[in-house]
Amino acid sequence: MTQFTIDYSDDLKKRIAALIDGRPVRLASKSPRRSEILTKLGVSFDRYVTDGEETLDMSSVPDDPVARSVIATKHKASEGTFGMESGIVVAADTIVVLDGETLSKPRDRSDAVSHLTRLSGRDHHVYTSIVLLDLDRNREEIGTSDSCVTFRNLTDDQISEYVATGEPDDKAGAYGIQGMGKFLVEKHTGYLDNIIGFPAILFAELLERLRE
Prior knowledge:
Blueprint: H1 10-20, E1 25-27, H2 32-40, E2 46-47, H3 65-80, E3 88-98, E4 101-102, H4 109-119, E5 123-134, E6 139-151, H5 156-164, E7 185-189, H6 192-196, H7 200-211
Parallel strand pairs: 1-2, 1-3
Antiparallel strand pairs: 3-4, 3-5, 5-6, 6-7
Helix pairs in contact: 1-7, 4-5
């Protein structure tokens, strides 16, 4: 697993620990990046790998990329409750949006080249939606974080060399800012961990809403 440099304050960790209050936490995601961020936040959790959108009929869902992402995240969270009677289920979904179109995980390396060629020299948005289900209080909270990323102007050789590393294979938009993909990026606004796939500040805010 690629290790990335991101640290969280003790105050944030204590805030999250107090809000969880020792209850079981389940991450309904197979993403190693989300697991690593939760671990960095000091959260103990188990994981439940869901089918996500694979079992979800999206034919009647609005074309808005964020709305579709939220619906998919709610589906993951619902699946993540399987066999769980108490605690908090956490689900998340990250999308890369260029010109109103979602650039999903590449189907193959040719598709990854296509994604990166389109992103070269341009701004795009990265949205991560989080859904929390509090099984003890029968509560649900949903939020979305937005970051803007600007890519450098990339040559065909630079794109080919990056794709050949295999890093883009399982990543929305075909790049990982926490790994070698950081060299593709000129600048970004918003939280880095949102671009990676799990914004800690939003997670804490949603935990607080569960307690209101």
